Amino acid sequence: MKAVVDTNVLISGIFFGGLPQRILEAWVDGRFELCLSSSIFDEYVQVCERIAAIRTSLEYRELLASIVGHSSLIPDEVSDTPITADPDDDKFMLCARTAGAIVISGDRHLLDANGWGGVVVRTPRDFLSDLGQ
Asked: Based on the structure, what is the number of domains in the chain?
């Protein structure tokens, strides 16, 4: 199974735990293939750096390096028309469509776009259920 992980899910998994952390653990265990574009990775880095500046004891660089080395990099695409109510979220849908992947997100804008271009958007809880966890 291929999946694109929304930034909020990734950040929650790195810094806060819970279901998002279980998703990252499932990826580390090889239970799904992580797909991302350079614009998605750039957003991951920017948000991690903002949070780490406040919570200085948290380490994220090793995981981000692992993500780069062990994920499928999908070329960035741009849509002529909006896909979601938040244009910053469109990159997740475009990446997933190109990769033939699902999107894992709790973001309302992405959940509302479920089905666009054949892309399925799953909440973290539903995704873990799909994995049998």
From this structure: 1
pLDDT of res. 10: 95
The 10s digit of each residue's pLDDT in 46-81 is 999 998 888 776 678 888 899 989 999 999 998 999
Alpha carbon distance 4, 71 (integer Å): 10
The β-bridge relationship of strands 2-5 and 102-104 is: parallel
What's the whole-model pTM score?
0.94
**Residue ranges for the chain with pLDDT beneath 50:** none
CA distance 11 to 68: 15
Q: What is the largest CA-CA distance in the chain?
A: 42
Domain residues for the domain of 45 are 2-130
CA-angle at 15, arms to 19 and 85, nearest 5°: 70
CATH number at residue 73: 3.40.50.1010
Q: Where are the alpha helices (DSSP H) in 16-123?
A: 18-28, 38-54, 61-69, 90-99, 108-112
Q: Are 119 and 96 in contact (CB under 8 A)?
A: yes
Residue 12 · residue 20 · CB < 8 Å? yes
